């Protein structure tokens, strides 16, 4: 089987995923998965779609991650893996959709406005 391409985004993070048959290796930016995400909670987030479908250790996953912070990158990768698994087999879609792995979280950082210290915070008002 040739690689299946998919993309996942979250906040400012973009994950380009290539899924192929293998032994379960996950490589992110040419680094080992557990080395890239040393936090066990982020490792859990990334592996959620594989665990739900019980295909852990069946596919090799190569990922190119750009932008954002570690949490945004982990959630972008989760979406990318879920989309790749649906492309591989449409039967996977209901289980992944039920767990919310196919929904792109649209929340982005609101821009800072001029004349204010942050997006919504205002400078202290002085009446006199």
Structure in words:
There is one protein chain. The chain is of the alpha+beta class. The protein has one domain: Ribosomal Protein S5, domain 2 (2-Layer Sandwich). Helix content is 34%, strand content 23%. The protein is built from 4 helices and 5 strands, in the order ββββααβαα. Strands 1-2-5-3-4 form a 5-stranded mixed sheet. It is elongated, with a radius of gyration of 18 Å. It starts with a strand and ends in a 30-residue tail after the last helix.
Whole-number radius of gyration? Answer: 18 Å
Task: Give the domain tally.
Answer: 1
Spatial order of the strands in the main sheet? 1-2-5-3-4
CATH architecture verdict: 2-Layer Sandwich
Mean pLDDT: 94
Structural class: alpha+beta
Biggest beta sheet attributes: 5 strands, mixed
Short description:
This protein has helices spanning 33-36, 40-53, 70-88, 93-98; strands at 4-10, 13-21, 26-28, 31-32, 59-66.
Task: Quickly list its features.
128 residues; alpha+beta; five-stranded mixed sheet; 4 helices; 34% helix
Which helices and strands appear, and what pairs or packs with what?
Layout: E1 4-10, E2 13-21, E3 26-28, E4 31-32, H1 33-36, H2 40-53, E5 59-66, H3 70-88, H4 93-98
Parallel strand pairs: 3-5
Antiparallel strand pairs: 1-2, 2-5, 3-4
Helix pairs in contact: 2-3
């Amino acid at each position: 089987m040739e690689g299946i391409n998919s993309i996942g985004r979250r906040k400012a993070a973009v994950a380009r995923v290539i899924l192929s048959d293998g032994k379960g290796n996950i490589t992110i930016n040419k680094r080992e998965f557990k080395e890239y995400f040393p936090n066990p909670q982020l490792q859990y987030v990334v592996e959620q779609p594989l665990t739900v479908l019980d295909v852990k250790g069946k596919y090799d996953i190569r990922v190119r991650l750009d932008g954002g912070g570690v949490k945004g990158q982990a959630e972008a990768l989760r979406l990318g893996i879920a989309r790749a698994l649906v492309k591989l087999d449409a039967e996977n879609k209901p289980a992944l959709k039920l767990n919310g792995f196919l929904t792109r979280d649209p929340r982005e950082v609101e821009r800072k406005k001029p004349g204010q210290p942050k997006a919504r915070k205002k400078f202290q008002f002085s009446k006199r």
